[in-house]
């Protein structure tokens, strides 16, 4: 389907705003003259955001050898690209008009997939780990947007999924003119994210990318797809774990060349890492 992204954005109407501090940080990171102190000053303008960034920076996920006490030292130790990931992860929670059970599940799903994708990228050197984190973080941003713009309709859709009427991919076009994948890609385009993140979001469920023409994008999307499947199997961001899901049969596992033993070890690793760090990201 060849649809203009602007048409998709217009169909959504009420978009969640990208937090002003996140926008400013992204702009600063594109400026070679930006200092760690300048970045820290920007993040500090949002006390809740800065507290979350510091909390995440001190999680075992980032393996700091000593406690990070200031934003500036966090930026110096973690690096600017990791700061970008942390700011976006900490900002995503604010893209909701309310924060009930459904929003909590969407938030957990996004963070779980981001963590899972980064673990996969680190363990198997599939792609850049920070790009994998953002790919996982934004994989279901379209769901967040649809829930923000038409919460009652989105809740009806999710209830139909929970009732066993079909998968979200099968049912969502009954309720919305465009899929969550297309909406997510269109919104990332509007927010000026990279083409690789836009395409990864668009194809996170179908892996419809030419491996020969775009091998790096294919590996990124496969990494995010597999991380999402692992979250589903573990019950991260779900009502309950899908213990019958066979990871080895997933096209992404086959694309990355992972065998049953590697998948079992990785499943355990992601379960441990997520459980150890969920309070830092989700608290």
TrEMBL record:
<dbReference type="InterPro" id="IPR013976">
    <property type="entry name" value="HDOD"/>
</dbReference>
<dbReference type="InterPro" id="IPR052340">
    <property type="entry name" value="RNase_Y/CdgJ"/>
</dbReference>
<dbReference type="Pfam" id="PF08668">
    <property type="entry name" value="HDOD"/>
</dbReference>
<protein>
    <submittedName>
        <fullName>HDOD domain-containing protein</fullName>
    </submittedName>
</protein>
<feature type="domain" description="HDOD">
    <location>
        <begin position="15"/>
        <end position="207"/>
    </location>
</feature>
